[in-house]
Design a protein that fits this description.
The complex is a heterodimer of chains A (485) and B (484). Chain A is an alpha/beta fold and 485 residues long. Chain A is built from 15 helices and eleven strands. In chain A, α4 links the parallel β2 and β3. Chain B is an alpha+beta fold. The chains are: A alpha/beta (485), B alpha+beta (484).
């Protein structure tokens, strides 16, 4: 009997349609694997009974003629996304007991496609982190090497798919939190154009940067998940109403003549040799498929990290003001006054990195500093947006490393300085600031034989072209076929 | 001693918060109704739940534009929403969504009437924001209870220029704002219910000086009277401070309605930093010229426009025009009466004297009037058509008020229809004259006062329903006939 968990989503759907297996069997295989691999700590809330019930319902629906690319497919949902009736913690003690009274739009869309949720996936607290070590529910292990981080903040979402505890998952990306874990875990992770996927019911970190996106072991899998959750939502004033083609629309089309921009600022000294080699080889591979490399410049790249670490904490300090112990979540006991209740609840409930960013954010918005920091950062942001606009007059997509290094050890002392940790995101952050679509897909191995990711960045709303290019590259290589033991 | 007598001039600015009568909240789907069970009108957005997002209610913007047009403001074609941060249990998100840098309306004005004289007060800005919930402090348990029904209800904040000079002007300014808001149908404007709130900024300066003095802000004002009293007290307090050579300290004051005094709530040093920044969950609000024009075309007329029409077109007195435009319901009722009878003066008299008299005695309002406007209009039309006498009409009206029936039904039932037929009246009069030969002799002998006797008899015989003028004419003719 084949290990059903080795099937991709597309392959599993084929097997379900041709009755080679049932969704209950498929789901059970994933449940068995999840239960055998609890040491990965990918799940915060694991719901096998609900999953089997949903799988059963999917089988019944299929027997009555229902069909959907995701019908009966086991998935996981990052714990930043609200699931009605199922605890949603955001990786934080402050929400350790929060049972949402409503579901996110993406949850409703995913589940109405017939996908089967196995539960909520671990993450850096409030999506702030690049290693999943900032979770109140413990660190997540990289399935490729258990002493290494899976990346963050969607570490659980990546580990669950790479470890084959689910067939696909949803994560969130504010500065790289889908793409970087995808790179570390040998997966395809897509961050959509800002406004393509609804943020209603997604716990907000930085409102102008957050997007929900998929993890899959293949480009096709990720694209199927993206199409299931994308679309205008009247409940999200920042979601956009458009008639774009599905992200799967151009899968299989060749990429002859596709102009691939190579940003010179993204190939810096200090990158691991094996990482930059893998990227260069990947670009050469794209060229061999008919793509044309074009050198481009994104001159304000160096400012991006600073701009992000002003804007994101500012918005976060505001978005996290609601966690005050009054209506939901953790409330400290034996407090002596209202101010004490607030201070105590939030001190007890929030982890260090979250506190750090709230303090930074409050500072940069405070009177006397607003113009020098927040207003200035938003102005520089427009320069970064213009950089990309200019670059895209010369190319169709942009290729770069996803991360400057491969996966690093859990509890790595060299990353104890938070600023060192922030450097992980230097290639991914500019994309969020510009609201562009981007993905990471496997393209090699680092010096430890651990996964390296290639980042492709697209024009606004051009997910189909990104997927087209990723698919072409993927099908001409075997990185996506690797399986963890 | 008033400030007119002294060397100081008061500089007063008012901030009014107007709760809008929309169906749903400004950014959330729950009802914006007043009343309701505790925490009945709530939803994830109202509660500031994780993941909740604001969606702007279009009616709120429409009402804001209407008020902006009524107050002659410039309507900003692109405006933004900002977050205003502070921690309090009645503010679920830990911030209020408001407008800061670029409010929807700016640079307007309002004309108010103060003891017969007109004054124009500048309007600095009007912006949209959401209301907070209510905290109730339960002394019994030492607990605070939070009711979020009101959280998210749309508010318009109206800021006046510091053009107001007296407590009376402040009161009139508020009354006029209220009247306009009610006429437009955008708010109840009810201070006692909290749908109109006012903070007053008061400072003094030497008469003739153009520099502003230090101001205090007075909060917790729950009626127009209290606004006037608080301002009056604060003006006197500041004058006394200044006269004794001291400086006025900038502070937020609370008005104590029991003692009629103000006291310091917090000073400038303690004021919060709200960390305003543009709300990233709400894109810029773009308002198109065509939409503004459409609103201008279709919005209700303002009280001042009605007064103009009533005095110029209908020749009603200024006083009557004011009475009829005190409330939108009054003018709507009056116009419905006029539409049926086409007699503006009669309509005015019947509404303001008769109807209001009855309503006031009963404690009813025009909205709960037992007499429908169309029916009153019909009654007046019947009078003008000589189908019923004015005296009869009053009796009919009383019946209309008691039974809510239309006049025709009452007239028919009581047989009150006025007799106007000449031959019938002539016959009737002849009968009366024939029946009273003694009085005829006396009248013809010089007792002219007996004319009234014949009129009375004729009315009695006709059951009061003969046309009085015709009765008079026929009696006159009948008597003259007998003279010969």
């Amino acid at each position: 009997m084949t290990d059903l968990t080795t099937l991709t989503i597309a392959e599993a759907q084929e097997a379900l349609t041709t009755k080679q297996c049932s969704s209950v069997e498929l789901t059970q295989s994933y449940i068995d694997r999840a239960q055998a691999h609890t040491s990965l700590n990918a799940f915060i809330t694991f719901e096998p009974e609900q999953a089997l019930a949903a799988a059963h319902a999917a089988d019944t629906a299929r027997a009555q003629g229902a069909s959907n690319p995701l019908l009966g497919i086991p998935v996981g949902i990052k714990d930043v996304i609200l699931t009605k009736g199922t605890r949603t913690t955001c990786g934080s003690k402050i929400l350790h007991n929060f049972i949402p009274p409503y579901s996110a739009t993406v949850t409703e869309k995913l589940l109405s496609s017939g996908a089967v949720s196995l539960g909520k996936l671990n993450m850096d607290e409030f999506a702030m982190g690049s290693s999943n070590e900032n979770s109140a529910f413990g660190a997540v292990k990289n399935p490729w090497h258990h002493e290494m981080v899976p990346g963050g903040s969607s570490g659980g979402s990546a580990a669950a798919v790479a470890g084959r505890l689910v067939a696909g998952s949803l994560g969130s990306d504010t500065g790289g939190s889908i793409r970087q874990p995808a790179a570390f875990c040998n997966l395809v992770g897509i961050k959509p154009t800002y406004g393509r996927v609804s943020r209603y019911g997604v716990i907000a970190y930085a409102s102008s940067l957050d997007q929900i996106g998929p993890f899959g072991r293949t480009t096709t899998d990720a694209a199927l998940l993206l199409d299931a959750i994308a679309g205008f939502d009247p409940k999200d004033s920042t979601s956009i109403q458009r008639n774009d083609p599905l992200s799967t629309a151009l899968i299989g089309k060749d990429i002859k003549g596709l102009k691939v921009g190579i940003p010179k600022e993204y190939f810096v000294d200090g990158m691991e040799q094996e990482v930059s080699d893998s990227i260069r080889k990947a670009i050469a591979q794209l060229e061999s498929l008919g793509a044309i490399s074009v050198e481009i410049s994104l001159p304000h790249t160096e400012a991006a990290l600073s701009v992000y670490y002003i804007i994101a904490p500012a918005e976060a300090s505001s978005n996290l003001a609601r966690y005050d112990g009054i209506r939901f979540g953790h409330r400290a006991k034996d407090t002596k006054s209202l101010a004490n209740l607030y201070a105590q609840s939030r001190s007890e409930g929030f982890g260090d990195e979250v506190k750090r960013r709230i303090i930074i954010g409050t500072y940069v918005l405070s009177s006397g500093y607003y113009d020098a920091f927040y207003a200035k950062a938003q102005k520089v942001r427009t320069l970064l947006i213009e950089d990309f606009k200019q670059a895209f007059t010369k190319c169709d997509i942009i290729a770069s490393p996803t991360t400057p290094s491969g996966p690093f050890p859990i509890n790595d002392t060299s990353k104890k300085d938070p600023l060192q940790m922030y450097l992980n995101d230097i290639f991914t952050i500019p994309v969020n600031l510009a609201g562009l679509p981007a993905l990471s897909l496997p393209c090699g191995e680092d010096k430890n034989k651990l996964p390296v990711g290639l980042q492709l960045i697209g024009k606004p709303w051009d997910e189909a072209r990104l997927v087209q290019a990723a698919y072409a590259y993927e099908q001409s290589t075997s990185w996506h076929k690797k399986l963890v033991k | 001693m008033t400030l007119e007598d002294t060397e100081y001039e008061a500089v007063i600015g008012l901030e009014v918060h107007l709760q809008l009568a929309t169906n749903s909240k400004i950014f959330a789907p729950s009802s914006a109704k007043f009343g309701g069970e505790v925490n009945e009108y709530i939803d994830p957005v109202t509660l500031g739940m994780p993941g909740a997002l604001p969606v702007l209610n279009k009616k709120t913007v429409e009402y804001a534009v209407m008020l902006g047009l009524a107050l002659k403001c410039e309507i900003r074609r692109e405006s933004h929403f900002a977050r205003k941060h502070y921690f309090y249990p009645d503010l679920p998100k830990g911030y209020q969504i408001s407008q800061y840098d670029e409010p929807l309306c700016e640079r307007g004005q309002i004309t108010i009437d103060v003891d017969g004289a007109e004054r124009t007060i500048g309007i600095t800005r009007i912006h949209m924001e959401e209301d907070a919930g209510k905290n109730i402090h339960d002394a019994r348990t030492g607990c605070s209870l939070v009711d979020l029904n009101r959280a998210g209800v749309p508010l318009l904040e109206i800021v006046s220029e510091p053009d107001i000079r007296t407590p009376q002007e402040a009161g009139q300014y508020l009354r006029t704002i209220r009247q306009i808001a009610r006429f437009l149908g955008i708010s109840d404007g009810n201070m006692e219910e909290g749908s109109l709130r006012c903070d007053a900024n008061v400072s003094l300066r030497p008469r003739g000086s153009l520099k502003f003095g230090t101001r205090t802000e007075i909060k917790n004002l729950n009626s127009f009277k209290f606004v006037e009293k608080a301002i009056e007290y604060e003006m006197a307090r500041q004058a006394s401070v200044l006269r004794s050579g001291n400086k006025v300290i900038q502070a937020t004051m609370l008005f104590d309605s029991a003692t009629g005094t103000t006291r310091v709530m917090r000073t400038k040093e303690d004021s919060a930093d709200y960390r305003y920044f543009p709300d990233p969950d709400l894109p810029a609000l773009l308002v198109e010229d065509s939409w503004i024009s459409a609103i201008k075309e279709s919005m209700p007329k303002l009280p001042s426009e009605f007064v103009e029409e009533l005095t110029k077109k209908f020749s009603l007195s200024e006083y009557d025009a004011q009475v009829l435009t005190a409330e939108r319901a009054h003018i709507d009722y009056y116009l419905n009466v006029y539409n049926v009878c086409s007699n503006p003066k009669a309509a005015c008299n019947w509404v303001t004297s008769e109807l209001f008299g009855y309503l006031n005695k009963d404690g009813k309002t025009i909205e709960t009037s037992p007499v429908k406007a169309a029916d009153l209009g019909e009654l007046i039309r019947l009078i003008d058509a000589d189908e019923i006498s004015g005296k009869m009409a009053k009796i009919v009206f009383e019946e209309m008020y008691t039974t809510s029936q239309p006049p025709a039904a009452i007239i028919a039932a009581k047989g009150l229809k006025q007799i106007t037929d000449d031959s019938a009246i002539e016959k009737l009069v002849e009968q009366v004259l024939n029946d009273n030969p003694t009085q005829i002799e006396q009248y013809l002998g010089g007792n002219e006062r007996l004319f009234g006797f014949f009129v009375g008899q004729a009315m009695k015989v006709s059951g009061g329903s003969a046309n009085p003028k015709k009765v008079n004419d026929f009696i006159k003719a009948g008597l003259e006939k007998r003279r010969g």
